[in-house]
Every structure is written in structure tokens, then in C-alpha cells.
């Protein structure tokens, strides 16, 4: 019995390491041995799950193990006797969610899902995949429920909450967690490079729908943050503001209400967004034939869209509203301070906004 308890300690340590940056040093042989140990403990669980005495001994030892490993590993996930029953699934989920896992090993792990993966009886071994499917279902259900709860009075003061669907919120949180984990990995490299790599991968995945990618970035910036995650959000914001083209793409792909909220939360984004709208307006020319302002080179940057974006800022929080009003009035004054339609884009913007 004592040897089983000692081995249990080793299994818990193995699962803890699978969630740490040390997994970057693993090779295929190490992964194979890890899954062999996990299989052994699943058999052990099946053998003793109805034996009260052994069950209690293993559960008590796990309490002691959890306390010890919690002090050693910052992101340690406590192991229960129930978890021992699907050790391979826990191991697989831990490895696949770890950004330090080498790509060659992730390819090997994904191969476990292919139809050619059979157990010794000739049947496909679904236990690892079933555990991940269960996690995904619980995660999705919790997000759907949390989204439904947004339909209460909180949306009266935070209407932007309804503009992020549960899937996008979840992806944003996952990106934030991955970035935060990478930042704590000593071998990860320069932080700015981490953001470039992560967002480049996301952009490649969303190449046919750039608005999806933009909304995921918005979800990262609007996610609830712990003190350790705020640094990751700052990096994501710095990446967004570092390139005017990607900022414009982002702003065109995200609903105006979300942009207004971002302008409220982040002064640097507010300045960059107002600067972008200012450049947009300056690029417009007045069309006397229809009595409207048009953007010659970019049809999507139309007058109505421009007015709507300024309107959302003016209807936003006080700081955003005041900054927008100050900018528009200053631009109108610098352009001649006209009061009639069709001469200055700034005059016409203020006239259109007062009518709305």
C-alpha cells in the first residue's frame, strides 16, 4: 500500500509539471511514459473505487499532496480521487492548454484523436477525448448561462456586454490566459514578440473573417483582469496601437459601443481612436451634387458611419464625451469656425450630431 501512495505522489507531481513551463523540455518518450503512468492509475482507481479503506487512504494522501504542491507550483490544480479515474484526460487537457508545449508534441497528442487510435481490444480509445469534450461542454454551458444573466439590470448601465457572444468572450479569456502564462515563462523571449506571435496565429485562423479576430482582441481588452493579467492586457493594447492599419481594421470590425467602452477604459486608445476618426473626416470631400460628404478611396468610410461613431462617443461616459466635444469644437475653430452646411466637415459633423 505504501508503494501505491508513493506512486500517487509522483503522479500528482507529473500532472503539476504538465501545466508548467518545464514541459518545454519534454520529448515524445517522456509523454509516452506519462500516459503509461496515467493509465496505471486509472486501472488502480477502477480496482479500488468501491474499497472504502483504500479509497480513504488515497483521498487522505491527496489532501497532503495538494497542500505541498500548492506551495511549489503557482498554478497548481488540486487533484481529487475522482480525477484519478480519468488521469489520461486530465494529463491531456493540461498539456494541450500549456503554451510551453513544443509543437511536435502537440501534433503527437492530437494524433490520439484520430480514428487509427485503438486500444488493445480493437476499439477506439475515447477516454481522453471524452474528458476534453466534457470540459468543453461545461465551459460552453457556463458561458451561455453567464451571457443569459447579462439580460438583467446590469445591461442598462453596460449595454456593450451584450455585444460579445459567449464564444468570443471565452476565446478572449483563453488568449489572455495564454499570454499571461507565456509572460511568466523564462524561456519565452521578448514580451512584444510573444504578442506578435499569438495574434499572428489568431489572424491566420480568422483570415476569412477579420471582424471575428477584431472582436476577440476586444474581448481580451474588456476581460475581467486579475492583477497579474493586467500586464498582459497592456501588451495587447500596445500591440493594437503600434500600427495604424491594424488599428483601423480593428475599429471597422468592432461595434461602436465596444469602441466607446474601450475609449473609456484606456486613455491611450481614446486618443488613438479620436485621431483615427479625425484623419477619416479630413479625407472626406463635399459632394455638391448630393449635398453630402464622401470618402473617395474607401467607400466603407462613409459619412453616416463617421457620424454614428462620434455619436456613440458623445453618448458614452463623461470623460469620453468631454474629450470628444473638446476635440470637435477645436477642429471646427481651426477650420474657420463656420456655421453653415457644406464648407467645413467639422461644422457639418456638429450640426448632424445635434440633430440626432
TrEMBL record:
Q: Which InterPro entries match?
A: FANCF, FANCF_C_sf
Q: Which domain of life is it from?
A: Eukaryota
Please list every transmembrane segment annotated in the UniProt record, as residue ranges: none
Q: Which Pfam families match?
A: FANCF (PF11107)
Question: What's the protein called, per UniProt?
Answer: Fanconi anemia group F protein
Organism, by scientific name, is Huso huso
